Amino acid sequence: MTMDELAAAFGPRLKKLPAPIYYRDSFVTQVVGDVILGGVRFVALFQMDPGEGRLVQVLLRAKGATPTHTSYVDVLKALEATLGPPAKSECKTGYAGDIPWFRVADRWTFPATSVVLTYYNPDFAATRDKSLTVRYFPTHVKPPGS
């Protein structure tokens, strides 16, 4: 999709950012700020290829209250209801110094599209921000930032 096609698809819900957000190999200038999935509020960031100006990934990033593991489970259930069980699930834990962290990720892979749900808790003491994201990207290309 091009930016014009995004505008046609989302109409007035699509908002232009005051300044672009740059990722390693993509940029975002347009978002939809009112996406609800599994009862969790997300902002949809449309990551575009800088060379071709085409959509390379849709990144849903939880917004509002800090996401919890319960938020992750709610989104996982919503995705499973639509997409079926994930093709791959992983849970990783470790330490950053003496602070424990964990990350869970679930991946659905289809012929044209891949979907990855990730919940990351960088510190069990809750002094750092947790993140909950859903990424949609073409299966046949490497997703931005990976």
Keywords:
about 150 residues, 2 helices
Shape: globular
What composes the largest sheet? 8 strands, antiparallel
* Beta strand count: 8
Tally of structural domains: 2
Low-confidence runs: none
Could you give the order of strands across the largest sheet? 1-2-3-4-8-7-6-5
Which bin fits the share of residues in helices? 10-25%
Output the number of helix runs.
Answer: 2
Write the H/E string, N to C: HEEEEHEEEE
Radius of gyration: 16 Å
Estimate the mean pLDDT confidence: 89
Structural class: alpha+beta
How big a fraction of the residues is strand? over 45%
Determine the N-to-C terminus distance: 21 Å
Blueprint (SSEs and pairs):
Layout: H1 3-10, E1 14-22, E2 27-37, E3 40-48, E4 55-62, H2 69-83, E5 88-96, E6 99-109, E7 113-121, E8 131-138
Q: What can you see in these coordinates?
A:
With 146 residues, the protein is α+β, with helices and mostly antiparallel strands. It has 2 helices and 8 strands; from the N terminus they run H-E-E-E-E-H-E-E-E-E. It has an 8-stranded antiparallel beta sheet with strand order 1-2-3-4-8-7-6-5. Strand 1 and strand 2 form a beta hairpin.
